[in-house]
């Protein structure tokens, strides 16, 4: 019989193992920040991106932060042959899958594009991983899979029920991963359900800088504060919340990035499929976000109230107890950190 202390040492060595990690969509907002967290933990990062919705300049700034070049493969996630070749040639041990379209409103008007990019892309990646015998995956899912909350805070056992094609595409992929895991126990998979990532790296070199009009609240507020946009529209002020505006769980993007690192470490010791919420466990209203950003920037954020948007919900925030216990991870940065880092990045982005 194997000595228990020997087993513990073996597991410890495995959990400290430095990996080659492929980031699909790694040139994007969350991918960039996760690359920093992985690099600082001693892992080697390879970025795979088609640059359809990301900035090549952000990769240059990422390299500035790391003080090292980042191996980058330009390609579509639906190119199974290129993915398989990349996994093999780069000797990839694990994949973090960020690549996909992510705007709820756009998904309603372009559902086929969303299913093609997100669902077809995930299938292509899984086929490539199977062929390359690389079976460790962290999947970028979303709290949208919970639909309209039945109770708060939302834990991982909350029923799933997507209300738009974007959310449905994430839910379809989670179901595929569940079937895959049941069919082959040698897979190690974590599905991370993000709440609302905001903020930027402390260097202000990388952050959220969407093309066109921002879909998310924080970059919109930041662009109003810096004078790029005239005012913010607050959609609805008659919700059943303390100040009538929608309440969401905002998480600093570097806390989110460190959550991926924790999930990867967890998977070195756990097989099967595991689902985790990545949030802070508390919600902030739109008006609270505006006030916090005004305090961080010293700039006014003018706004007007518009009618509610179809499909929007009053409140949504996470229960993070399961993630804290299983991953030994918890968000540590507060709203002030989120707003100050977002403002520093927005000022830098304005000068570029």
Write the SSE topology.
Layout: H1 4-15, E1 20-24, H2 29-40, E2 44-49, H3 56-66, E3 71-74, H4 80-89, E4 94-97, H5 104-109, H6 111-132, E5 136-142, H7 165-183, E6 188-194, E7 196-198, H8 217-225, E8 232-235, E9 247-248, E10 250-252, H9 253-267, E11 272-278, E12 284-285, H10 286-297, E13 303-306, E14 315-316, H11 321-327, H12 335-351
Parallel strand pairs: 1-2, 1-4, 2-3, 4-5, 5-6, 6-11, 7-10, 8-13, 9-14
Antiparallel strand pairs: 9-12
Helix pairs in contact: 2-3, 2-9, 4-6, 6-7, 8-10, 8-12, 10-12
Summarize the structure.
With 352 residues, this protein is α/β, with parallel strands linked by helices.
Describe the structure.
With 352 residues, this protein is α/β, with parallel strands linked by helices. The chain has a domain of 238 residues: NAD(P)-binding Rossmann-like Domain (Rossmann fold), CATH 3.40.50. It contains twelve helices and 14 strands. A seven-stranded parallel β-sheet has the order 3-2-1-4-5-6-11, sandwiched between helices. Strands 12-9-14 form a three-stranded mixed β-sheet. A two-stranded parallel ribbon has the order 7-10. α6 runs parallel beside α7. The longest helix is centred in the middle third of the chain and has 22 residues. It starts with a helix and ends with a helix. The relative contact order is 0.14. About 3% of the residues have low confidence.
Percent strand: 15-25%
Please give the order of strands in the largest beta sheet: 3-2-1-4-5-6-11
Helix residue percentage: 40-55%
Q: Estimate the global geometry from the Cα principal axes.
A: globular
Structural class: alpha/beta
Q: Helix count?
A: 12
Overall mean confidence score, pLDDT: 94
Architecture (CATH level 2) name of the domain at 11-198 and 249-282 and 317-332: 3-Layer(aba) Sandwich
């Amino acid at each position: 019989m194997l000595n228990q202390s020997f087993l513990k040492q073996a597991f410890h060595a495995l959990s400290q193992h430095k990996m080659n990690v492929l980031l699909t969509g790694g040139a994007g907002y969350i991918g960039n920040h996760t690359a920093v967290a992985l690099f600082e933990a001693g892992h080697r990062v390879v970025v795979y991106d088609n640059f359809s919705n990301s900035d090549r300049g952000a990769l240059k700034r990422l390299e500035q932060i790391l003080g090292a070049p980042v191996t980058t493969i330009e390609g579509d996630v639906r190119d199974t042959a290129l993915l398989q070749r990349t996994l093999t040639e780069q000797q990839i041990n694990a994949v973090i899958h960020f690549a996909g379209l992510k705007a709820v409103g756009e998904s309603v008007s372009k559902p086929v594009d969303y299913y093609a990019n997100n669902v077809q892309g995930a299938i292509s990646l899984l086929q490539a991983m199977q062929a390359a015998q690389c079976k460790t995956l962290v999947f970028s899912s979303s709290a949208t899979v919970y639909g309209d909350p039945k109770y708060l805070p939302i834990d991982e056992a909350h029923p799933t029920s997507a209300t738009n094609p974007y959310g449905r595409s994430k839910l379809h992929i989670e179901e595929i991963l569940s079937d895959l895991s049941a069919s082959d126990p040698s897979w190690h998979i974590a599905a991370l359900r993000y709440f609302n990532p905001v903020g930027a790296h402390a260097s202000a070199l990388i952050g959220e800088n969407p093309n066109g009009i921002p879909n998310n609240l924080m970059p919109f507020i930041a662009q109003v504060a810096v004078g790029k946009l005239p005012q913010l529209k607050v959609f609805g002020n008659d919700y059943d919340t303390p100040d009538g505006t929608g309440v969401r769980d905002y998480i600093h993007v570097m806390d989110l990035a460190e959550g991926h690192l924790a999930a990867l470490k967890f998977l070195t010791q756990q097989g099967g499929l595991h689902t985790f919420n990545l949030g802070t466990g508390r919600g902030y209203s739109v008006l609270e976000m505006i006030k916090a950003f005004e305090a961080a920037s010293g700039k006014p954020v003018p706004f007007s109230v518009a009618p509610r948007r179809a499909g929007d919900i009053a409140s949504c925030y996470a229960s993070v107890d399961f993630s804290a216990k299983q991953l030994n991870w918890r968000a540590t940065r507060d709203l002030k950190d989120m707003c100050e880092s977002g403002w520093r990045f927005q000022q830098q982005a304005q000068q570029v």
